[in-house]
Design goal:
The complex is a heterodimer of chains A (656) and B (276). By secondary structure, chain A is of the alpha/beta class. Chain A contains 22 helices and 28 strands. Chain A is 40% helix and 22% strand. The N terminus of chain B is likely disordered. In chain B, helix 3 runs parallel beside helix 6.
């Protein structure tokens, strides 16, 4: 193996890391993309040539130091190259969410003042043209996929490949300037600017320096022993900080290979073909895969089903212990080995997880059953806790100390403290420089000593030193009787049931807690099919009395488990209803990363909340919805409200 | 094929600025009879190189018969079909394909048990040069040739955005996707002229929009001349450069969508006329 860590003092920018990789592992694959049914690959040397050609092309178009170059498109090698090419020119890459609607795009483009934009395809170009009159500083649009672009006015537009061709042609003219600009980059120059998803208010541009990205990549690569033979699948939005750290930061630091799927629809097939060794996915991906496995096992032959059940029981009992290297009896080890041959191995292969050494999940809490399922198969799935402002990593779980209810110990180089209010603060080399053009927010988030408020409430567990996160600090409140109110804690417990897709719990400053529930159409629909329940729409299924019975039993189970924790016993759900529509980002009820926007839900469904508290058994409502193409419509429904049994002191009080 | 005539070289420019070339195919006084039934009566029109030409008309107007004449499946009772400056005689289906004419069907005609990829590969059949024995042995030139054909097919798969169903048996696909696969197979033959028999029939709005975009893209990217039959008037008027209107086997209108829309006979055929 080639030593990758040596003289690090000269490696102060991503282009510098690229030059080092070309010198040391130039012939190893850096990027792969499946196109025309075949995995096409580029070695580090080829990647360097591509990026330099692009950077020279950028110079010929007039990209200046400090310019912002926006990039919008799905995960493709050329888009990553465009980011590094922009850095080479002294410009700042700004990746955007590709599913952002034109209005959201307009705000971000206007805010960062981008003069150049790299679009993935015609769809993204159309969006840029749509907002062009509002965002007047855009001077040049580049696109990657030529398809359907021929008829466009090209006076201020160019294909990315043509920009590269121009760069290659102008090699002698611009080479000197490019070398100079690369040499100017240092540890404090801006590496990338990423916009936060904006759970509250307008998105903020988080400026991350080379120091933030490279220090973080260095520390965390060492933590998990990542090396240049590793493989990752780049499928998460490029605008998300995690993708930048994994597919650029850590990839350039360790020299591992970044694989881009053929299309979003083929992600699962591509995952299986690549078999990544290092994998990140939000909990919903793991949930979705588990649900699929379970549904397919329901339809499997009896022998297969019995085999699966038998060996999964063994796996659940001893699998995690074997993974953590704890002592396990010889007999169990043999049973587990047999299970590996008959069940776990083939199953992991189907999922595309055969080669995983390190897997991470974060963003939301993951259900213990889901987490244990993957770990019992021998997949080293761990949790981390982070945010954009920290260049992802705040805490993460070391190998062998993995549990579903903590987020691990502080990452290398990160200091964490808990404030009086319970809010978690951190300070690290990855801590962001500033919010772009927003000194007030910068000052209110990061204090003079560099401590950053996460906005999350949590505590360190005694004995293990692991951090546990309860909820968003601002969402943690008090109930009318003084009990602690932590909605997320209860919502997560509810969401661990496969039948429940989303839950929103209310109760701040009120006498009792109530909840909205969204059913999971796939899981509940499947259940309905098996039980001969006919339904024509989401709305009809959501209102079905037997679905209500099922959800009620889930709510009551959650109440029992919540009651077990005396601190949070007040958060038991007394009354609930099943919403007639799925909460949707298009309606503004969720962020693009699928986090519920609590206050919008609260104001939009105010009459439903009132009904939850005034004791009514049902309520009629009309809700406006936005379709994918932007048209609006209305859904009308009469919703049933159910009471759920609660446990502990409160029931006793009620009885008195 | 008989005597060559001077090919019509004058073209025209469409509203959106595309250059349309000379006459590619010309129907001269076509009449088609089945026993006593006259399906087509003395129709003449031409299809120019690079244009999207639509044939519309009410049910039973003779549109599909016309398409079958164009494709060479029916030999007209009277009249002549000229293609690329040659008069066309009766032909076998493989000769039609070799001439560069491909089509899709109103009722999907794919191989249900085969994968999408294999179905599209069948479209390359007439372009394959190695013998059946070499292909069966999977040896030498046959192997190399299949790779080359596969590459072309993959470009079409990419073009029509059906990567995710590449290995799926066609029988398992929903209707809209089957239509797309059929278009892919027709494209795989690298046709000069593509005949589409009701490409949007039975589709929902979104599927129709997708299909429209693909048809326009095919015309734009590959320069394929397209002749289509369609019921959805909105689609026809948006898509086509020129439209032939048929009613009871006769041609009652021919021209740009706007001209056709203003034609009183066409309005009468579609909406009926007031009785005094």
């Amino acid at each position: 193996m080639v030593e990758m860590t040596a003289p690090s003092d000269a490696l102060h920018s991503i282009p510098a890391l690229l030059a080092r990789n070309v010198a040391r592992i130039g012939a190893l694959p850096a990027y792969r993309e499946k196109e025309f049914g075949i995995w096409q690959s580029w070695t580090w040397a080829q990647t360097d040539e591509q990026i330099r050609a692009m950077a020279l092309g950028f110079l010929s178009l007039g990209v200046e130091r400090g310019d912002h170059v926006a990039i919008i498109g799905r995960n493709r090698p050329a888009h990553y190259w465009a980011m590094v090419a922009a850095q080479m020119c002294g410009a700042v890459p700004v990746p955007l969410y590709q599913d952002a609607v034109a209005d959201e795009m307009a705000y971000v483009l206007d805010h960062c003042g981008a003069r150049f934009i790299v679009c993935g395809d015609q769809e993204q170009v159309d969006k840029v043209l749509e907002i062009e009159d509002r965002v007047q500083h855009i001077q040049h649009v580049m696109y990657n996929d030529r398809r359907g672009m021929r008829k466009y006015d090209h006076s201020r537009m160019n294909a990315l490949a043509d920009v590269q061709a121009e760069g290659r042609a102008g090699h002698f003219r611009y080479e000197g300037e490019l070398t100079k600009r690369i040499a100017e980059l240092d540890y404090d120059s801006t590496c990338v600017m990423l916009y936060t998803s904006g759970t509250t208010g307008k998105p903020k541009g988080v400026v991350l320096s080379n120091r933030n990205i490279i220090e973080t990549a260095k520390n965390t690569s060492g933590f998990d022993h990542l090396r240049h033979g590793d493989e990752v699948l780049a499928y998460l939005p490029m605008a998300w900080v995690g993708d930048f750290i994994f597919s650029v930061g850590q990839a350039f630091w360790t020299g591992f290979t970044v694989n881009c799927p053929e299309s979003p629809a083929t992600m699962m097939t591509d995952l299986r073909e690549i078999g990544p060794t290092y994998f990140f996915a939000p909990p919903r991906v793991f949930e979705g895969q588990l649900t699929n496995v379970m549904i397919r096992m329901e339809d499997a032959s009896r022998l297969k089903k019995r085999m699966f059940d038998h060996f999964m029981a063994i796996a659940r009992r001893v699998g995690p212990a074997i993974l953590d290297g704890k002592p396990v009896s010889m007999m169990d080890r043999l049973r587990y080995a047999l299970g590996s041959i008959l069940v776990y191995g083939p199953l992991k292969n189907t999922l595309g997880f055969s080669r995983i050494r390190v897997g991470y999940t974060a963003g939301e809490a993951i259900g213990p059953e889901i987490f244990d399922f993957y770990r019992s198969l021998g997949i080293n799935l761990k949790q981390l806790y982070g945010q954009t402002e920290a260049s992802v990593f705040i805490t993460q779980q070391p190998d062998g100390q993995v549990r579903s209810d903590t987020v691990g110990v502080p990452s290398p180089g990160v200091e964490v403290k808990i404030a009086e209010t319970g809010e978690v603060f951190y300070r690290s080399p990855g801590t962001f420089v500033e919010y772009f053009k927003n000194p007030e927010s910068t000052a209110s988030t990061k204090d003079a000593e560099g401590w950053v408020a996460t906005g999350d409430a949590g505590f360190f567990e005694e004995g293990t030193g692991h951090l546990r996160i309860i909820d968003r600090a601002k969402d943690v409140g008090k109930m009318a009787d003084g009990h602690l109110f932590a909605p997320k804690y209860v919502e997560n417990k509810l969401k661990f049931y496969p039948n429940i897709l989303e839950a929103v719990v209310f109760g701040n400053a009120r006498t009792m807690c109530t909840a909205f529930v969204n059913i999971d159409l796939q899981a509940v629909g499947n259940w309905a099919e098996r039980n001969n329940i006919a339904y024509a729409s989401y709305q009809e299924l959501a209102g079905h009395p037997r679905v209500y019975d099922m959800i009620q039993s889930h709510v009551e189970e959650v109440n029992r488990s919540v009651a077990a924790d005396p601190m949070l016993a007040g958060c038991q759900v007394h009354r609930f209803l099943i919403l007639h529509k799925e909460l949707d980002a298009d309606d503004g009820e969720m962020t693009r990363t699928r986090k519920v926007r609590r206050n919008i839900v609260e104001s939009k469904f105010a009459e439903l909340i009132d009904a939850l508290y005034d004791g009514r058994g049902s309520i009629y409502t009309e809700t406006e919805v936005t379709y994918e193409d932007g048209r609006k419509g209305a859904i009308k429904a009469t919703l049933t409200i159910r009471d759920a049994a609660v446990q502990g002191p409160q029931t006793r009080m009620a009885a008195e | 094929m008989s005597a060559q005539t001077a090919m019509n070289t004058e073209g025209y420019t469409t509203a959106d600025g595309r250059k349309i070339g000379g006459v590619l195919m010309e129907m001269k006084n076509i009449t088609l009879r089945f026993g006593g039934v006259t399906a087509i009566k003395d129709i003449s029109f031409d299809i120019r190189d690079g244009e999207i030409r639509a044939i519309i008309g009410p049910n039973g107007a003779g549109k599909s018969s016309m398409l079958n004449v164009i494709s060479g499946f029916y030999v007209p009772t009277e009249g002549e079909v000229w293609f690329k400056g040659y008069r066309r005689g009766p032909m076998k289906p493989y000769q039609v394909a070799q001439l560069g004419i491909a089509r899709t069907f109103q009722n999907i005609a794919l191989f249900d048990g085969m994968t999408v990829l294999d179905n599209i590969m069948t479209g390359r059949l007439t372009l394959m040069k190695t013998g059946i024995l070499a292909q069966a042995m999977w040896w030498g030139a046959a192997q190399k040739e299949e790779s080359a054909h596969r590459e072309k097919v993959e470009k079409i798969i990419d073009f029509l955005e059906i990567q995710a169903i590449r290995k799926t048996p066609v029988g398992r696909l929903p209707y809209g996707l089957k239509k797309r696969v059929e278009l892919a197979r027709a494209l795989a033959a690298e046709p000069k002229i593509l005949l589409l028999d009701e490409p949007m029939a039975g589709m929902n709005v979104e599927e129709k929009e997708d299909m429209c975009r693909f048809i326009l893209d095919v015309n734009d990217e590959f320069g394929t001349t397209i002749c289509l039959i369609e019921h959805d008037m909105g689609v026809v008027m948006d898509l086509s450069d020129r439209v032939v209107v048929m009613d009871y086997g006769k041609k009652i209108g021919d021209g740009t969508p706007d001209e056709v829309r203003a034609n009183p006979e066409v309005i009468a055929a579609y909406l009926g006329v007031a009785h005094d």
